[in-house]
Amino acid sequence: MHWIAPTERDTVTDTIEKRLWDAADQFRANSGLTAAQYSAPVLGLIFLLFAESRFTKRRKDLESAGVSSRRSTSRVDDPAAYHAEGVMYLPEAARFAHLLNLPEGANIGQAINEAMDAIEKHNPQLAGVLPRTFQIFTSTLLKELLKKISEIPVSTGYDAFGRIYEYFLGEFARTEGQKGGEFYTPSSIVRLLVEVIQPFHGRILDPACGSGGMFVSSARFVSEHKKNAADELFIHGVEKTDDTGRLARMNLAIHGLEGDIRHGGHINSYYDDPHEAVGKFDFVLANPPFNVNAVDKDRLASDVGTGRRFPFGVPRTDNANMLWIQLFYSSLNAQGRAGFVMANSASDARASEQEIRKQLIEARAVDVMVAVGPNMFYTVTLPCTLWFLDKGKQGTSRADTILFIDARHIYRQIDRAHRDWADAQIGFIANVVRLYRGEAPDYTLGGEEAKVKLVEVFGKKPSYADILGLCKAATLAEIEAQGWSLNPGRYVGVAAGEEVSDEDFKEKLEALNEELEVLNAQARELEQTIAQNVAEILEA
């Protein structure tokens, strides 16, 4: 199915975002600093203004309450009165007006560092999170940055502030290239993951949480369905990079959320289980690094087996994709759902990875597979696959089927090199899944446009049906006949009148090349084993 949406954006927020970014990036160019050095302080200042906008609103409410009540003491300077409403308390020295009005010659870098210290002192949930590197800037540059960021209207809602923060995260990710992909997943990918697993309430885990976008999108989903995300979601994350973990905790705070994010030190989701995750989570969301090698399998031995973190065994190949997939599966409770991004090669890999995939399929846990086209990420052009697990589907009519969706030709072109999905496209794909599950469509995301497309494809009273070139509910017998492949292209087919495009050929060639690299790695591993065995025989 081909659906290329026109490029449209929220022009009001986009203007604020772009104006701020252009100014901030110009300041960076003049400073001689790298994007990596520059990103945390700039995000810290955006965070500070956002915190002040909520603080100011709460302070006015407390002042009004003090006038109308008989309390002998005002609570306007009581941090607990702010924390009770999920608002950070800001001492006077940490407020934007104070920093903007510092006299000429003042050491502004030191003043902002001290402001960050004061915020953490009065808001313990932020301990060790806020940046303290403002002294790498000149006072002149900081003054310009403060002025520019202060142009964000204080009336801006926290969702718009969150979008500005996320926009900056995305731009820093794009600027940093490959490294940026370690902390940022494009928002349209995240939104589809969330729309499909529907995290209305419960414990949610991301064991490779980056800057926390999965949690923020989950919270947005809850709030769009008229509930308070802070009351409904219990957030848990793991992030091996300390600086990125801090970004995640700031991102949560800027959206009025709290969570248990373990980060830095020597923490690593392959070897460490800080949340004792097995069987405990209602939802798992993740975008793990693809095709990681050199994992020390000897350190995993005690976590292999039924009821453990790697219930289906450790792959013989030097590739961690199947380790990640098992971590997501084993973390779910009996009704849990997971949604994650994965390299295409994991859907078709042979040998020991195929055996693990077979066991996962036979456990009736794989629910939906979505093929995603190229250029959806800032850092890699390769296509990928979205996996969705649902342990709760056992005992339902879906127990012995898996839904395959080919969304490679559904996209919106952002610029020559990048694509995303429009809200209507995300809503449409998510509603295909809802129809398959026997649920009513939900047009909260995508609205009328998503509804029109669903009716166009599935009829006036939409109900699920296999659609050539879009979706296919394949039986386990059909999947076994395909060598336990979870590649949507093997099942969905090509719609009548559509031809295999040059882009499809390129995708297939890239996927084959990716599989060839994996096979070459397996071959090298076998060569070493054979050589070692021969050497041992000759020495005997």
Q: What report would you give on this structure?
A:
With 540 residues, this protein is α/β, with parallel strands linked by helices. 47% of the residues lie in helices and 13% in strands. It is globular and about 75 Å long. It starts with a strand and ends with a helix. It is built from 19 helices and twelve strands. The strands form two sheets. The protein has a nine-stranded mixed β-sheet. α11 (242-254) links the parallel β3 (233-239) and β4. α1 packs antiparallel against α6 (139-149), α2 runs parallel beside α11 and α15 (423-437) crosses α16. The model has no long low-confidence stretch (mean pLDDT 88). It has helices at 11-31, 35-68, 79-83, 96-100, 108-122, 139-149, 158-176, 187-197, 213-224, 229-232, 242-254, 321-331, 345-348, 351-362, 423-437, 447-458, 476-481, 489-492, 502-539; strands at residues 3-5, 202-206, 233-239, 259-263, 281-286, 332-343, 366-372, 384-390, 401-406, 410-415, 418-420, 471-475.
Number of strands: 12
| Overall morphology | globular
The biggest beta sheet reads: 9 strands, mixed
- Uncertain segments are none
Q: Kindly, what is the distance between the CA atoms of the first and last residues, rounded to a whole number of angstroms? A: 62 Å
Indicate the percent of residues in helices: 40-55%
Number of DSSP helical runs: 19
Oligomeric description of these chains: single chain
Classify the secondary structure makeup into a structural class. alpha/beta
Question: Can you give the mean pLDDT?
Answer: 88
Q: Beta-strand level of the residues, as a percent range? A: 5-15%
* CA radius of gyration: 25 Å
Q: Give the strand line-up of the largest sheet.
A: 4-3-2-5-6-8-7-9-12
